[in-house]
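Section handout, structural biology tutorial.
Before the tutorial, make sure you can parse a SMILES string by hand: atoms, branches in parentheses, ring closures as digits. In the record below the ligand is nicotinamide-adenine-dinucleotide, and the chain has 329 residues. In the tutorial you will relate the predicted structure tokens back to the input. Do not try to memorize them.
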Amino acid sequence: MSERGYGRIMAEQEPPTTYEKTIDALKLTGEILWTIVQIWVAIFQSIYAVFFPMEPKDVSGEIILISGTGHGMGREMALRFARLKATVVCVDINPKGNQETVDMIKQEKGKAFRYECDISDRAAVFALQQKVAQEVGSVTVLVNNAGIMPCRPFLETTEKEVRLMNEINVMGGIWMLQAFLPPMLARNHGHIVAMASMAGMVGSKNLVPYCGTKFAVRGIMQALAVELRQEEKDYSGIKMTTVCPYIVNTGLAHNPKIRFKDLMKPVEPSDAAEQIVNAMRRELVEITVPGDLWYSSYKFPQLLPARAVAILQDFTKTGVEPHAPNQFE
Ligand SMILES: NC(=O)c1ccc[n+]([C@@H]2O[C@H](COP(=O)([O-])OP(=O)(O)OC[C@H]3O[C@@H](n4cnc5c(N)ncnc54)[C@H](O)[C@@H]3O)[C@@H](O)[C@H]2O)c1
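Predicted structure of the complex:
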């Protein structure tokens, strides 16, 4: 558009009157005051919740689908949710380990179903959703847990490892969300739990691409929460919990390196699962496992300058040693 034409359109608009300007300024002042009030209410509510946490919610009527139930924390979460009388849908690429989990649940008279699926395969994930909806019912809780963690110096990490990590840890989680979220949205009822990691909060040696995948998991969960909140439709019935474990004794971290073992003990998978199920039932938005690392390893270092954080990291010397080569070939 020419400058003259633009000028003509501008000239056609009536300038706001003093009365209109005053009303706008009053509206904005009201909005700012209301926002400040809401922020303070939110701060007091969260302080109150530290001392008087919400009663854990009942999950007995829920259909809880967990990926990666053939081993580790996935299995332990499945056992715990089944004990709480939820119907558990166990999904894993490894049918043997997954069947063992289902058998363990059935031995305890729990309700469990087994499905084999590679969550990095989008078509397989959508087929899984259809099958589970027909055979079990509509999933109301999704636990995106399956993940892999090749540990190697960055430049030695193979193309296959980088691709697999991203396809399972990041894209697998996205496909599961795209498949299982719509029925939850339709009923405005559901809960998403995603397994990130402390390696998704702070960078770590020998885990460069893995850290990237776990930062991504946290980003996806945060962004999805914003998107659902800012939709016109009410999606307040969809809860989200992101879990950031430190080292859990499942064998995933083959060679953990910990300088102060008494202060930073690896967590047993059963303890980790207990904390995750508890956080989900209390509708916590994000947790570390163990919980005290939330302040000591995440919030407190955020207040420090980058150089100070680096000095602290080098002093604690906590991380993982590299894997044997070709583990994922
Ligand atoms: N163990 C730790 O120290 C630790 C720490 C932080 C975060 N995490 C995260 O927690 C989650 C669970 O870890 P874990 O230690 O219990 O793992 P694990 O290795 O004990 O179990 C992972 C399960 O996921 C399954 N799986 C792998 N790829 C799959 C795929 N493509 N499709 C379907 N299933 C697949 C495996 O067969 C296995 O049964 C992972 O996302 C991991 O990154 C683990």
